[in-house]
Amino acid sequence: MVEFVNGEHRISLHVSHPERVLFPEIGVTRLDLLDYYAAVSSVILPHYSHRALTVKRWPHGIHGPMFYQKHERVRTNASQMIQIYSWKELLQWVALGVIEWHVPLGLIEEPDQHDWAVFDLDPHEVGWEKVAEATKIMAKLLELLRIPYLLKTSGHKGMHIYIRIEPEPSETVTMACHLIAEIAVKSYPHLFTTERLKVKRGQRVYIDFLQNGYHRTMAGVYSVRAVETASVSCPVMLDEVDILPTWWTMPRVIERIGRYGDLFGVFTPVISLRQHLKDQGIMVPPTLNHSLEGGGQ
């Protein structure tokens, strides 16, 4: 049994092979990962609770086999989606090999009614300097449209731009984000693209608005990513987007939360995205042509 401490609270868990190295390039063990998630659990839970989560498990480390899981039991016909409401539940999944958490944009009660909209800036083969430039321009565009936003790194190569919204159907949210993305593409065709085929993107940043689709998920805020640096999907301010995503390591994120709290939990106005765009003269159809569905994360 291993004991974990979170403020005044303590729990003991059975952990198989706590000394197992999960990230061999930097020597991070399963126990290190558990300690990180215990330390940040109070800021993670508000973002993960009441949502049907998807987990990615690497029981033998990031260079071993990966298991993708959406239900609590994988060897039965049980349909119970993965949900967590306590830091003990969070750590129990990590003890089972979970490294990454992926979170939908809608609550489990009405999964197709999204209360977040997102732009996933995918760099493909371009460097971080161009991702940072693209983030700043997208932020400026949203400010011109009077849309409040939050930023976080993907924890790997991209940047995520989130908007708090009143619940709306995923198709409506997808179309709204598509329209905003096309404004960016038309204004900066050398920098942005919405081309889904990677071979046609060139040296441009892909604005993936399709991540707003039904049943899509995004890497959860504060989730560690299964990359050699064990970097974290971390909230950032606009003046921090030039910092390489690999800089946001587990110890730095813990220290940052201790200093500033949850930067993804700060008060941000909730908007009716469709109505807000209508007020700006941008009309969003109530439904989306199904030909836009699909695509990868």
Automatic annotation (TrEMBL):
Pfam families in the cross-refs: LigD_Prim-Pol
TM spans (from-to): none
Sequence ranges assigned to domain DNA ligase D polymerase in this UniProt record: 29-264
Domain of life: Bacteria
Name assigned to this protein: DNA primase
Species of the source: Sulfobacillus thermosulfidooxidans
